[in-house]
Structures are given as C-alpha cells and as structure tokens.
Amino acid sequence: MLGQVDVFVNLSGLIVPYTFLVLENLVHPVMFGVNLLKDLRAQIDMYNNRISFYDSLVTLPITKSSDKSVVLSTVAAVTPPKSEALIPVRFQGRFHHQTAIVDPLSELRSKHLLGARTVVQPTKKRTFCRDTPNLLSKHEQIAQLSAVAVPIITHQNRNLRQSANSLQRPPPLREMEQVLQELGLQIDKQNFLQKQYLEVCTLVYSNRDIFAKIVTDLPGTTTIFHHIDNGDAKPVRSRPYRHSLEARKEIARQIKEMHENDLIEPGMSAWSSSVILVKKPHTNNYVSP
User: Fold this and answer.
1) Whole-angstrom Cα distance, residue 275 to residue 7?
2) Domain boundaries, the chain
3) I want to staple 146 with a disulfide (CB 3.0 to 4.6 A). Which of 69, 125, 214, 224 is the partner?
4) Taking CA 273 as the corner, what is the angle to CA 268 and CA 275, rounded to the nearest 5 degrees?
5) Which one is the CATH code of 69-147: 3.30.530.20, 1.10.510.10, 3.40.50.300, 2.70.40.10?
6) What is the pTM of this model?
7) pLDDT tens digits for 117-149?
C-alpha cells in the first residue's frame, strides 16, 4: 500500500466523499470494497444487472456495454443434453483483441438459461460460450464478447518474479564468508554449531543487498512522509558545539555527501540541534549519530 487519498465519488450526480487506499499494479483503476458499499447502503441486483445506493436514490447498471464488444450468436441449433455444454458461437464485425471475456446476456434468464462468464481467445470470428442450454435456435443472440485489459509484466517485475521463484544453490561457505566480510559483517562461529553457522551465513548472504556499506547504498523512500506536529510549542535551538578543524572538515564532507544523495535538503526551520561527531575507536574515522 502506497498510502491513502481523499476523493469525491460521482454516482450519477450524487457526490460522496471517501478515503481510498492507493495500491500498486491494480488491474482496475478503482475498486469498491465492502466497507464502501456498506456506507453507501448499496443493494446489488444481479438478475437485472443493477446496483442502487441510499435506498434506491441512485440506480446504476453493474456492467456497461464496451465500445470494444460484439454480440455472440449461436452457430447452429442446440439440443439440450440436460446438463452444462460448451456452445459454439460466432460474431459479426471486427474484433482484433486476443483475450476477451464472454458475458451472457440478461435475456437468457427469462428463458430459464444460465450462462457462465468465461475468458476466451477468439479465432476466426468464432469462440465458445459456456451455458446450461434449454433449447437454442440457430443465430440466437446469447452473449456479449468484450475485450479484457491484460496487465503488462514489466522487465523489472519479471526479474523480481524470477528471483523469488528461483531455487539456486548457495555458493560455497568460503565464498559467502568473503562477501560478508567485505560488507563488514562478521559472524562468530563459536556461538553456533556447524550446521547452524552455515544456515546463518546462507540467510545473511541471500539478503546481502539490504546492507549498506556507504551512504549511496541507502535508497531512501518517498512512500511515507513523516511530519512532526509541534503544536504551539516554542522552537528549541541549541548552540553548535566547538569542533576541531579536522572535525569541521568531516562534518562538511558528510553534509555534502548526504545532500548529493538526496538524504537531506536545505531548510529554514527555527528548530536546530547541534551536530555530535564521534570518532571510531582505534581509527581516524568519524561517525555522526
């Protein structure tokens, strides 16, 4: 979930405010959940293909005829086998979509016929319709064929799927230890049995991409934005600490590095805190907690 957004839903002139969740890779641009349908007091009439809101204040069709749809008619008369059957059907006009959905017409119910919605791939202006036939004459219109929007699998999603489904053997233990040492990760063998040590090394190695060696390895996020509500509190400002020339150079270097990697940005806030610079033990390197 990427977040949420407040929108106004227009139901044939009836404007309703609602908060929607924003998700990634949805097949449909908008999906109504059960909570929204309850709040709108929706009543679904599948027989008449209708949905009403607020005690029939507004009534809308559940499905609409698409511009990219054609009517399906029976190829020949059908004698019912008293069970479900696949009925050959055909359509007139042009329909160049490889994947489509067969939606039985509502008029079938008056003839005591049941039809199933089916995903098909039409060929040569013909396809099949899944029905429980009673008695169908030749060229009788029984369903509608509409195009289906198939989600496009991007190169990135394909790589993620392949990496998630792949079951590759881990490299030798010595190679994994070398990679972990380069990341600055050391696992004490004395705390584990040999089998446990191998499992821990394999686990850490398989997730080595989440460890950052330098600032540029931190990807950051724009999914969630943090906001601190200070209310009516007065700004707190602290005087900067005195640092040596070497420490000031290190502070300037780290600020420049974080700014170049979009981890920080200039600000004009009245609130401020002093920089605390700590030197690592037995080294000449600094860390800024």
Assistant:
1) 42
2) 3-61, 69-147, 169-211, 217-224+233-289
3) 69
4) 110
5) 2.70.40.10
6) 0.33
7) 888 888 777 777 777 766 777 778 878 888 776
